[in-house]
Design goal:
Layout: H1 11-17, H2 44-49, H3 62-75, E1 81-85, H4 88-99, E2 105-109, H5 114-126, E3 130-134, E4 150-156, H6 168-177, E5 181-185, H7 190-193, E6 203-207, E7 221-225, H8 230-239, H9 246-278, E8 283-287, H10 297-303, E9 310-315, H11 320-329, E10 345-349, E11 366-370, H12 376-393
Helix pairs in contact: 1-3, 1-9, 3-9, 4-5, 4-8, 9-12, 11-12
The structure holds pyridoxal-5'-phosphate.
């Protein structure tokens, strides 16, 4: 930002201003999109001495600087810098590679995003890293699973299908006492609703594809790091040649500007729909950490300041055919993966397929909803028609 505010500003204000320098861009509000590889040096002397603000497109441009600066400011105290990656999953695998290598051990929550597990069980294993999955509710008992070679504990709260909450400060205390790092997938809450560096994380990952982008039109990921982990993270990104296309960086930066108002609406509408679902006779449980009925509510209340639009429900036992009838009847909920865009979504899922440290036995079919920016009354009416179709098909 060209001018520095005279008093500290709230994260929502940072979202609007961070990383902008209109003065340096002829007064235009937004930064230009630099499509760039080669950077020319004015003289032979400059070339030999590598004297320039930028060296090469892959190593950073004013566009990537603007986005990195904005994300770093949003994370606030404790964040030393941010690495930009071409997807959320790339951000996760890059962060893991940055902290552990051959002969090391990592602890990963059993509720983790499934492709994170696939990376740990695949590429990471081939690199010689051992992964142990742990019960997301383990808290300070994580101490029992720590080994002398445990380099990192990976947390994700809430899990993006099961919505188990994790006691991150308790886990972080144990990890740090044993010399291990804490890394978090903070895609659900974003730094607006959960402050990873205040709660003990050393690295925080976001799939920017979701709420940062916010419009289901960009793949993007980022890793925020504290001073201790930033050099290894940046080194991994540079040596692996990872970078993000300029237009995608621009879309991420553009999305960031409105993330505050979008999230507030996802939060409000998500809770409205979740509370309505809680009263439905067809629903056994609503897996939403910000509902007082949820086992993770106390942790959510202590550590989080809001919730996003993603949650699940457990239906009372019913046939697959009736679940499909419910889903097929919905007109305002698209059926597709990912989330965090402006639109509502529904998917059917089953964690029993992959959980290994804990047993997933919800007692009925499970559906995950993303509540978008539509009118929540319209969404509820749509769901009501879905339940009518479910009843008609039983
Ligand atoms: C919790 C979570 N983390 C990471 C990712 C990966 O993000 P991307 O799809 O950008 O690779 C996803 C995608 O659905 C996710 O839900």
């Amino acid at each position: 930002m060209a001018k520095t505010p005279k008093t500290p500003v709230k994260p929502e204000t940072k979202l609007v201003n961070a990383g902008r320098d209109p003065k340096g861009q002829h007064g235009f509000v937004n930064p230009p999109v630099y499509h760039a590889s080669t950077v020319l040096y004015p003289t032979a002397e400059d070339q030999v001495a590598h004297r320039s603000s930028y060296q090469y497109g892959r190593r950073g441009t004013p566009t990537s600087d603007a986005l990195e600066t904005a994300l770093t400011e949003l994370e606030g105290d404790g964040c030393a810098g941010v690495a930009l990656l071409p997807s959320g999953l790339a951000a996760i695998s890059t962060a893991l590679i940055a902290v552990a290598g051959s002969g090391d051990h990592v602890l990963v929550t059993d509720s983790v995003y499934r492709p994170t597990r696939n990376f740990c069980d695949g590429g990471f294993k081939r690199m010689g890293v051992e992964t142990t999955y742990y019960d997301p509710l383990i808290g300070a008992d994580i101490a029992k699973l720590m080994k002398p070679n445990t380099r990192a504990v990976f947390v994700e709260a809430p899990g993006s299908q099961s919505f188990d909450m994790q006691d991150i400060p308790a886990i972080a205390k144990v990890a740090h006492d044993r010399g291990a790092l804490v890394m978090m997938d903070n895609t659900w809450a974003t730094p607006l609703y959960f402050r990873p560096f205040d709660k003990g994380a050393d690295l925080s990952i976001q799939a920017g594809t979701k709420y940062i982008g916010g419009h289901s039109d960009v793949m993007f990921g980022c890793v925020s790091a504290n001073a201790k982990t930033l050099p290894a993270l940046k080194n991994t990104v540079y040596t692996m040649g990872l970078c993000v296309g300029p237009d995608d960086m621009y879309l991420a930066l553009r999305g960031l500007r409105t993330m505050g108002v979008r999230l507030a609406r996802h939060n409000e509408s998500g809770l409205k729909v979740a509370r309505w679902l809680e009263q439905r006779p067809e629903v056994a449980r609503v897996l939403h950490p910000a509902l007082a009925s949820n086992p993770g509510y106390k942790i959510w209340q202590r550590d989080f300041t809001g919730s996003s639009g993603l949650f699940s429900i457990v239906l009372k036992p019913t046939s697959e055919k009736s679940v499909h009838a419910f889903m097929n009847e919905l007109a305002l909920f698209g059926m597709g993966y990912s989330w965090g865009g402006f639109e509502s979504l529904v998917i059917s899922f089953d964690c029993t397929e992959y959980r290994s440290a804990t047993k997933w036995a919800p007692g009925g079919p499970t559906l995950r909803f993303h509540i978008g920016l539509e009118d929540p009354g319209d969404l509820i009416a749509d769901l009501e028609r879905g339940f009518a179709a479910l009843a008609a098909t039983k």
